[in-house]
Write the structure tokens for this entry.
Amino acid sequence: MRKLVQVIVHKMRNRKIKRRNRSLGGDIFLMIVLGMFGLFSLYPLVYIVVNAFKPMSEVFIFPPKLTVDNPTLNNFFDLGAIIEGFDVPFSRYMFNTLFITGVGTLGTVLLGAMAAFPLAKYQFPGSKLMSNIIVYSLMFSSAVTAIPNYFIMSSLNLIDSYWAVILPAVGGTLGLYLMKNFIVQVPDEMLEAAKIDGAGELKLFFSVVMPLCKPAWITLIILSFQSMWGTTGGVFIYSEELKPLSYVLSQIVSSGIARTGVSSAVSLIMLVVPVTVFVISQSNVIETMATSGMKG
Amino acid sequence: MKKTNNKESFRQVWQRHKSKYLMIAPFGLIFFLFTFLPVLVSVVLSFTSFNMAEMPKFSGVTNYINLLVKDSVFVTAVKNTLVLALVTGPLSYIMCFLFAWLINELPRIPRAILTLVFYAPSISGNAYIIWKLIFSSDTYGFANAWLMKLGITNEAILWFEKADYILPILIIVQLWLSLGVSFLSFIAGLQNVDRSLYEAAAVEGVKNRWQELWYITLPSMKPQLMFGAVMQITNSLSISSISIDLVGFPSVDYAGHTILTHLHDFGNLRYEMGYACTIAVVLFFIMVLCNILVQKLLRRMG
């Protein structure tokens, strides 16, 4: 069983990656297109980073500039001073966010992918109905479901706990739908071969499906992490010591214009972690390029 | 949810597919409680009058009649939503694929950087507020400054105050934000294309990158393309926060009013939850309809 996977992985690795059918003119043209849209997209990142290091005197210059003349760390010191003054220590907020993000992301990826596997690869009574429900539940506006969700949460006694934020995220179908569309491509022959070796469905899932769908679940980690990281808890968590970091930081931001510089520092801090996760994960997707690959 | 087949008894089905049902169960339970049930309750609420202070009162199809027949603002909202969706939906879909495909050609490091750059607008929260500066209505706004420098206009244009400009601005911002989930899934999907197919194709006479794209890459990515289509349909029909934040709420002549901003109006400002749920249900059916049409179109092309 494991040997089979190893052989396949080895085969994929030895496959030479050659660039055929590429003309220089086409390369240049496409690079220009990429470059232009890239500049267009880069703008908010540059803006957030630069603003965080602007001294107060430069924040209010109009029109706003994309450069900073006298970079300063004052915004970060000010932010630190504000956080010092809170009743709940910063590390507590940090822990809340890490717990929510960690458990939420793990749950989304693991439970979503596990449910996606049978739905993608087998036909059984109810499979089609379930697949349809999953796609269509992506289309119902979450703006109105928040209220029924609140009642369900409170009747289960989950209001004001981490789970009030984690469970609805895990119960979303985007992750499952994404995974399902990748698992469909896992060759049936590989599953059959592993089954002949005596592997059960769960074993198939962990030792054949998941390794082959690495680009998919890494993508899902990025998406899930990003949305969990930004969650403020809203009305679902009201105890101050259970609030996530983004709630506290957004409170600081919304508390007045005098702290404009500080709010730029907040934006940068909130951005750094998801971007780091993104870069690490994304370079992992790229790394698998040489090792994975499926016959369609 | 689990339907039994007529030919087999429930027990036989369970025996045969037990492991599959058990793998779905953990997700299924959470999904049922926190996604499916809330949707169901919302649908029920759409037939009631509910102000969140008193118990919902059953009102039959009154909400639906009011919304579809009497609410003239809703007609504007539907029109705007469809215009936005028809332009940004297909365009953003093509952009997601095109950029993912182009990036996939690059060596490792530039590719990681460019992926981040393109994805940046969707990761940076409400960074789209910077568009307010670009289209600022005084001469300092970048758009005005440039137009005046180039001699196209003599005086500053009031971008957000003229109804004609509002939809085009929303389209530009939405396109800028559109390299999100679908874009990432396309990048991941491109990693899964069997590379030996390209070599075989080169031997068999595929001459350039466009033929390669058409004959190999696209057919190998059907599941991801389907996924991307669903995501872009849902996103392009759900434009609301960029409209509220950029052109204000309510916008001039309701020019930036969409189905979701209409929902926001009744749900968050007027507390008419029953009516808000009705809007959600109607939007749901519009999305389902679009989805069916697009899936048919994609199948015909494949």
Notes: Chain A has a mean pLDDT of 82. Residues 74-288 of chain A form a domain with the MetI-like fold fold (CATH 1.10.3720.10). The CA atoms of residues 133 and 139 of chain A lie 10 Å apart. DSSP finds 14 helices and no strands in chain A.
